[in-house]
Amino acid sequence: MEPFAAVDVLNTRTLLIGIVVFLVLFRTLRRPRNLPPGPWGWPVLGNLPQIMASGDKMHELFSKLTKRYGNIIHVEAGGISMVVLHGHDTAKEAFSQYELSARPELHITHAVCPSRIGILDSSGEEWVEIRRFSMTVLRSLGVGKASFEQNISTEAGILIEEIGKYHGKAFDPKHAVGNAVSNLICSVVFGKRFQYHDPAFQRLLKLLSDNITQGGAAGLLETSPIFYKLRMLPFVRRYVHAVNNFHKHFNVLVGEHTHKKDTDSPRDFIGFFLSEKEKKDKQGVESLALQSENLPKIVSDLFGAGSETTATTLRWAMLYMMAYPEVQTRVQKELDDVTNRNRMPRIADKPELPYTEAVLCEVQRIETIVPMSVPHMCSDDTTLMGYNIPKGTLVFSNLWHNHFDPSVWEEPKSFRPERFLDKEGKFQSREELTPFGIGRRICIGEHLARQELFVLFTHLLHHFTFKNPDDAPPISFKGIHGLVWTPQDFTVCAIERN
Ligand SMILES: *[C@@H]1O[C@H](CO)[C@@H](O)[C@H](O)[C@H]1NC(C)=O
Ligand SMILES: *[C@@H]1O[C@H](CO)[C@@H](O)[C@H](O)[C@H]1NC(C)=O
């Protein structure tokens, strides 16, 4: 052997060992003390390969890991440090903390969208201001109150007419249901509804549903800093493209609206925003959040969060009615007893519709549409149940796990609306059902969504019986995990009742 080659081999080996020792030391030293436990991860990529490999079942992957690591699990994924919380009590304790109520940077949205902040991604004082303002506006517009029920009923009537056009033949309800729900949020935001076949409306819905909802389980594409840099990958490029188109389109829509502004007597969210801003400008008060450049983002957040979610829940509800005809019949009987079939059901009838309400709750439990919740970010070093959570950590709450926790729900895998009824058959709400999240960042559209679900669902079942078409494959409850957990496309026959 040549003497030089021996030196080379030695050097290479020493170098390799050196690198390994360095990496291990670096990771150990860099790893803050007393983090929650979690599985081993690769250098740089962390646990991303495992998470990506779980595909649509990220929530199930983490749920299984609790057996080994307990309720708070720490992982690294593509340059971000994250913890996933399990159990209703864990989430409750975490999200009452201000430090755990911030939001992570949305890397792709911020790169392509000129607005600074919206509702979903704001943190700190800006978030407090924007949240308070948005809730006040929703209340002023009557959302969640009786006055808005009329608006929902009107839209429900149009939806029923639209579905009636199929005369009991099989159709995919995605568009009709999506149109109805989106129109309601459009009337809140823009003060107008669209015709279902209006090309501008169709385009808006397509922009939202096509590729944005494919943003990767729990929005990892947005929250991990590596994906925007990897935008040559086709699935990232598709998403970047969709986000870009969506925000461009919203800029145009908001721009059109601001032309005909009516700041004296605002009638929609944009009107209130402009009027409030004008007031603040006159008083010389500098507002953090109410900046014109934020408006398109705020509006698109309201729209994005307010349409896909409720429409998806309604489609799941239809699917369960098709799969459980005896449940559907029982809901219809309850509705008929209250209305005598000579009027439509109303929210005021709720006390007499316990089973119907229980069915809606059970659908929201068994198909948790945001299984991993919307990620939070830790804004300052804090502790949770004895563990350290360093600043900058992403915090997910595994709502799916909580909704299937066998210590809370008996036989969690079965669809059983009765679990929301007491012995006398009265509706019994359950604290552990949290489809809208928990704590300080609980969904601001909760009242709106509940109202929409109740009115649209009862009106539909008053009017139709949903059946799986004879030639359709057996009903599947397999979901797709984009930004929301959606059923696979399906067709339905809507048979008119008389
Ligand atoms: C509800 O409908 C009425 C009548 O069409 C309309 O004037 C009002 O702006 C709507 N409210 C909201 C919040 O969309
Ligand atoms: C969604 O992605 C597909 C495939 O790349 C593309 O053809 C389509 O135009 C995209 N849709 C939107 C609305 O960006």
Automatic annotation (TrEMBL):
Any one Pfam family match given in the protein's UniProt record, by short name: p450
Positions in coiled-coil regions: none
Cell compartments where the protein resides: Membrane
UniProt cofactor(s): heme
Transmembrane helix found in the keyword field: yes
Superkingdom, taxonomy of origin: Eukaryota
Spans traversing the lipid bilayer: 12-29
Annotated GO MF terms: heme binding; iron ion binding; oxidoreductase activity, acting on paired donors, with incorporation or reduction of molecular oxygen, reduced flavin or flavoprotein as one donor, and incorporation of one atom of oxygen; steroid hydroxylase activity
Cited PROSITE patterns: CYTOCHROME_P450
Location (main, coarse): membrane
Keywords: Heme, Iron, Membrane, Metal-binding, Monooxygenase, Oxidoreductase, Transmembrane, Transmembrane helix
GO BP term, example: organic acid metabolic process
InterPro entries: Cyt_P450 (IPR001128), Cyt_P450_CS (IPR017972), Cyt_P450_E_grp-I (IPR002401), Cyt_P450_sf (IPR036396), Cytochrome_P450_fam2 (IPR050182)
Sites where the protein binds heme: C443
GO CC annotations, alphabetized: cytoplasm; membrane
Similarity-based family: Belongs to the cytochrome P450 family.
Name of this protein: Cytochrome P450
Organism: Patiria miniata (Bat star)
